[in-house]
Design a protein that fits this description.
- The chain is an alpha/beta fold and 298 residues long.
- It folds into two domains: 160 residues, HUPs (Rossmann fold, 3-Layer(aba) Sandwich), CATH 3.40.50.620; 99 residues, Rossmann fold (3-Layer(aba) Sandwich).
- The strands form six sheets. The protein has a three-stranded parallel beta sheet. It has a three-stranded antiparallel beta sheet with strand order 4-7-10.
- Strand 2, helix 2 and strand 3 form a beta-alpha-beta unit.
- The structure holds zinc ion.
- Zinc ion binds next to loops.
Length: 298
């Protein structure tokens, strides 16, 4: 099977260093095995889109030398596909009319946020309510998966998360549904992304099972956090910086990922850096965990 990877930024702002690590990791996993690297803009939540950020993300990726294959997929143009997936879930999906206020009072909080205990499970589909979300009925069969880097994870979705939302009450499709439908549509064989998304994966596997999709392989690289526990993602990266700065930034993403790249003066151009990176990429060198000193310049 051909390796097809992807990078899927959400246009809620410009790319920051954490997103460049994600881009580099997924890019090199694909390019080092002559695979494809697809680009998807996760603009399913139109309320979170920042003006001009899609344009800036694309300019940044291009100017830093990432080369994607094929057309860019925009989630904002995929509503019909998401609706079809929702329809095919049939009885597994049900409308939920619980308000946020009600849930805040009535439900318990687990390790992954609040646990929805299925209040509306028996609700019939053609309800007479102006606003409702759609939830997916879950079960208590533990869902386990092997990650290529992290320890294997088991989740009993019903007990630990509850029936989760696949279409929101504001008519937006949820991230979980959109990602699963798009990964299948783009025939993604390998998902490479940050470990902050690790605990989303069982829900996505469950959705894949319900929809009859194939399961991709997962690699969750460690999300960079500093010693004081903050996620490293403050600095934004603009396409306007000079070539040496770009080289330096890409080298930093490589070293973050444990690749032990030579110093910057070893390379005469950005292209050189990428040539070295593709040739020498070794995903076994990626550390499973990553902590930086508190004063690390980001
Ligand atoms: Zn409900």
């Amino acid at each position: 099977m051909q390796y097809i990877g992807r990078f899927a930024p959400s246009p809620s702002g410009p790319l920051h260093f954490g997103s460049l690590i994600a881009a580099t990791a997924s890019y090199l996993c694909a390019k080092s095995v002559q695979g494809q690297w697809l680009l998807r803009i996760e603009d399913v939540d139109k309320f979170r889109i920042k003006k001009n950020s899609i344009k800036r993300i694309l300019q940044t990726l291009e100017s830093y030398g990432y080369q994607w294959n094929g057309d860019i997929l925009y989630q904002s143009q995929r509503t019909e596909a998401y609706q079809q997936a929702l329809d095919s879930l049939a009885e597994l999906a049900y409308p939920c009319t619980c308000t946020r206020k009600f849930l805040q009072r009535q439900v318990s909080i687990g390790a992954y946020g609040y646990i929805y205990p299925g209040f509306c499970r028996e609700q019939i589909s053609n309800i007479d309510s102006p606003q409702f979300a759609m939830r997916l009925r879950t079960n208590n069969k533990p869902l386990c998966f092997e990650d290529s880097l992290q320890e294997s994870l088991c989740q009993d979705i019903e007990t630990e998360v509850g029936d989760f939302i696949i279409k929101r009450s504001d008519a937006m499709f949820s991230y979980q549904l959109a990602v699963v439908v798009d990964d299948a549509y783009q025939q993604i064989s390998d998902v490479v992304r940050g470990s902050d998304l690790l605990d989303n994966t069982p829900r996505q596997l469950y959705l894949q099972q319900c929809l009859g999709y194939q399961q991709p392989t997962y690699l969750h690289f460690p999300t960079a956090i500093t010693e004081d526990g903050k996620k490293l993602s403050k600095q934004n990266h603009s396409p306007e910086v000079d070539d040496a700065q770009k080289r330096q930034t890409i080298l930093r993403t490589l070293n973050f990922l444990g690749q032990q790249a030579p110093a910057i003066d070893h390379f005469s151009s950005l292209e050189d850096v990428w040539d070295w990176a593709i040739k020498n990429w070794n995903r076994d060198k990626i550390p499973a965990q990553m902590t930086l000193p508190e004063n690390y310049p980001d």
